[in-house]
Design brief:
The complex is a heterodimer of chains A (about 290) and B (about 250). Chain A has about 290 residues and is an all-alpha fold. Chain A contains 11 helices and no strands. Chain B has one domain: P-loop containing nucleotide triphosphate hydrolases (Rossmann fold), CATH 3.40.50. Classes of the chains: A mainly alpha (about 290), B alpha/beta (about 250). The structure holds adenosine-5'-triphosphate and magnesium ion.
Chain lengths: ~290, ~250
């Protein structure tokens, strides 16, 4: 009897212990992230103004005079959207091919491994790779080159996430679709419907990574104080704007860097919120 | 239309010989029940009849299955045509990720059977499975919102909408409550006149209630196959007798 009670007390204690450990981890994770956002807000909010997001850098912008970072804002949106769309155009067929036509597991396995490796490569390497190509082709830094390079950076993220999602589809769904006499292409259509929420998540991850990446666009997209007007001209981006602004010795210009970082964070937050809102709609028909 | 002839059918999963030399003639417009203990190869047999088995990566099928004078395993045979003519109702209802309406309309759409009167087809099929009254106001809500029993009826409607000749049912009532199960059962009985039905069941009593012919399997082999009355009243094989009296299995 006594033993039973002691055992019960010990198990309750055990549970409390692990509960608090988990809470501590949560606090640590959220705390650090909160601190980063806090610092960005605290140091950037002062410099944030309508002018900042609505105008181009004037002559003395980097010395603390008039202007904004509209060039980088628009440039980053172009780069990230372009790269995500491009990577999507590759990732969707690749993943769906692997899961429908290439039924032999070995090919799927190798492609997965390759994507995992690509995921781990630092983006500066992609940048250098893109730059080497540009040099050999005689192309200057441009929006196009930036999009192409950035697409390579986000492709593994998009493809692998989508791959995991598609992998999760119930085997019976495939059986019941094909049992109706569907071709594999038609099955792909059903699979796409089933994977829509996951696809959205994958897009979100890719976009977030793409818009925040500095190293890959440093050599390939270049930088300019103008709005992007052609695929073949250089384009500015927010991460690089942050980088350049932080590099100045003037505190009021450094505050602008934090403001730019804040804008970047706000974009990611906005896109992510929008995605989560549409997730409910897209997931309406999904079979669990 | 819809007579099946299984000839020297052998199936291997890797090295495991799951179906051994099966030979059987399945008559049209009859209910043929496949019974036997768990793992004896009932589902394997059923899936080999509409070539769903080959979705499995390591499976090997030998032998022939003739549908109305043509081998469905013939090399140049279009597998989607086979599966269109031989429909399957699975053990667990598995709706497509679409609305109730689209679930039924899916088959007619891909096979071009609609010819502009899709609404009528959907309605007719839903009426045939007794679901119309329950879903008529929410045709466009997700199929997953239905109860399991309703989902199974929806899956039946979806299968019938493709206009198959043969209907395969793999323990289609096993995951349902008794009332829904009886519902599906009486539906299947009404379908006998128009389809050839092959039905796998664990439930000997269900086989008694429904079957015109019974096929008894044991460890991948066909032990006994014959008209239901003879099968239940005068089983020829000792193994069958023991199974029916539940001494084994
Ligand atoms: N995908 C598979 N891979 C390997 N072996 C399999 C596979 N599916 C079935 N088997 C094996 O083949 C044999 C027959 O399986 P099957 O599913 O046809 O049995 P069953 O009669 O339908 O059983 P139950 O009544 O439990 O559904 C079993 O021994 C099983 O282990
Ligand atoms: Mg089975």
């Amino acid at each position: 009897m006594k033993q039973v009670r002691r055992r019960r007390v010990r198990r309750a204690l055990e549970e409390q212990c692990f509960l608090w450990l988990m809470r501590l981890s949560l606090l640590g994770a959220v705390g650090v992230l909160g601190m980063i956002v806090g610092v960005i807000c605290w140091r950037g909010v002062g410099a944030l103004s309508w002018e900042m997001v609505s105008s181009l850098p004037e002559g003395g912008f980097y010395l603390g005079r008039e202007g904004g970072i509209l060039n980088a804002l628009v440039g980053s949106l172009y780069l990230a959207c372009g790269a995500t769309v491009l990577a999507l155009c590759l990732a969707v067929p690749v993943v769906f091919y692997l899961h429908t036509y290439a039924s032999k597991g070995r090919l799927r396995h190798s492609v997965r491994l390759a994507l995992d490796i690509l995921w781990g490569i630092p983006s500066i390497v992609y940048g250098a790779f893109g730059f080497a190509w540009m040099v050999s082709l005689g192309v200057r830094a441009s929006l196009l080159a930036g999009i192409l390079t950035l697409a390579l950076v986000v492709l593994p993220i998009l493809a692998r996430t989508l791959d995991e999602v598609v992998e999760m589809t119930p085997v019976l769904l495939r059986e019941s679709t094909l049992a109706l006499g569907a071709t594999r292409l038609e099955w792909m259509g059903v699979l796409l419907r089933q994977s829509l929420p996951g696809l959205l998540t994958a897009i979100l991850l890719a976009f977030g990574r793409g818009i925040g990446d500095a190293a890959s666009v440093l050599f390939t997209a270049g930088y300019t104080d103008n709005l992007p007007d052609s695929l073949l001209r250089p384009v500015a981006s927010l991460p690089l704007a942050v980088f350049f602004l932080l590099g100045t010795p003037f505190p009021e210009v450094q505050a602008r860097a934090y403001a730019a970082a804040l804008i970047l964070t706000a974009i990611v937050l906005g896109v992510s919120t929008f995605a989560h809102l549409s997730l409910a709609r897209l997931g309406r028909y999904v079979i669990r | 239309m819809g007579a099946l002839s299984i000839r020297d059918l052998n199936v291997w999963y890797g090295k495991q010989h799951a179906l051994k030399q099966i030979n059987a003639e399945i008559a049209q417009n009859q209910i043929t029940a496949v019974i036997g203990p768990s793992g004896c190869g009932k589902s394997t047999l059923l899936k080999s009849l509409n070539r769903l088995l080959e979705l499995n990566e390591q499976v090997r099928v030998e032998g022939q299955v003739w549908l109305d004078g043509e081998d469905i395993y013939r090399r140049d045979r279009d597998v989607t045509e086979v599966r269109t003519r031989i429909g399957l109702l699975a053990q667990k209802p598995f709706p497509l990720p679409m609305s109730i309406y689209d679930n039924v309309a899916y088959g007619p759409r891909i096979h071009g059977l609609a010819r502009g009167n899709l609404d009528q087809i959907v309605r007719a099929q839903l009426e045939a499975v007794g679901l119309w009254a329950e879903v008529r106001d929410r045709l466009h809500s997700p199929a997953t919102r239905l109860s399991v029993g309703q989902q199974q009826r929806l899956c039946l409607a979806r299968t019938l909408a493709v206009e198959p000749e043969v209907l395969l049912c793999d323990e289609s009532t096993a995951s349902l409550d008794p009332i829904s199960a009886r519902g599906i059962e009486s539906l299947i009985r009404t379908l006998r006149d128009r389809y050839t039905i092959v039905l796998v069941t664990h439930d000997i009593d269900q086989a008694r209630r429904l079957a015109d012919a019974v096929l008894f399997m044991w460890l991948g082999e066909l032990v006994e196959y014959g008209p239901a009355q003879r099968f239940f009243e005068q089983p020829q094989e000792a193994l069958t007798q023991q199974y029916l009296t539940r001494e084994i299995g």
